[in-house]
Amino acid sequence: MSALARRRFLKMHGAGNAIVVLDLRGSRARVTPGEARAIAADPCSGFDQLMVLHDPATRGADAFLRIYNTDGSESGACGNGTRCVAYAMLDDPAMARPVENGRLLLETVSGRVEVKRVAERSFTVDMGRPRLAWDEIPLSEPFQDTRRIELQVGPIDAPVLHSPGVVNMGNPHAVFFVDQDPDTYDLGRIGPMLENHPVFPERANIGIARVSGREAIKLRVWERGVGLTLACGTAACAAVVAAARLRMIGRQATVSLPGGDLFVEWRADDHVLMTGPVCPVAEGHLAPELFAEAG
User: Fold this and answer.
1) I want to staple 173 with a disulfide (CB 3.0 to 4.6 A). Which of 27, 223, 238, 277 is the partner?
2) Does the annotation mark 78 as catalytic?
3) Residues 87, 12: contact at Cβ < 8 Å?
């Protein structure tokens, strides 16, 4: 039987993202890709991201966080999910531990992430420094200027989308800036092709963004390993960084996604901070039969 059978989970929303938090601290259990897919397939525990808590690997951290997409692949970062984890670790009776000043330090495969409470159900996540060099994103070939790279969709003389800015915010992102409403683009059709484009050896999150003011961006996202999503925190951060590099905005903006708004600030010390809400939805226990064919 899977070590995950009958484990309690907490389901939440972070600006529309479906987030499931699973606490495996104090055990040696690990989630396999097959088990992640099985959890995602159950309507009760379905998620955009599965956030799994493990014991910290280094002194001073509160937990080690592994992040899984619906297809079972691991993600390097999830800002919306990290806010949900913070709420669970501070307020959920089964997961909470003593913490000073409402601040948490979480380890991920992409590095340490600090998160702090700013209101009862609102948190700020320090997403760290954006990676902007072509081999850090990564891209499959050199581009000296990653503010706009040579990539387009549609006819060469009349492309539907072209010249995205590329940024790594724990995950690789390509952001296409457009003049019309992002809702008018068929991202459900375009997204899979661009996610798996050869220029992105680790695949990429695809954003279509419209700058509507010096501190306002409307954004839709096709998320790597997930698909169309109501919100994506790292994509919101990438959109602000990409727009600021092109001098389309300053260094902060409210990013409006289908699931809600996120506030993003690219500070002078190069760290990107993202602030947004959390919303508890449900809790339950993972049924043993979920894992019968998980492998």
Assistant:
1) 238
2) yes
3) yes
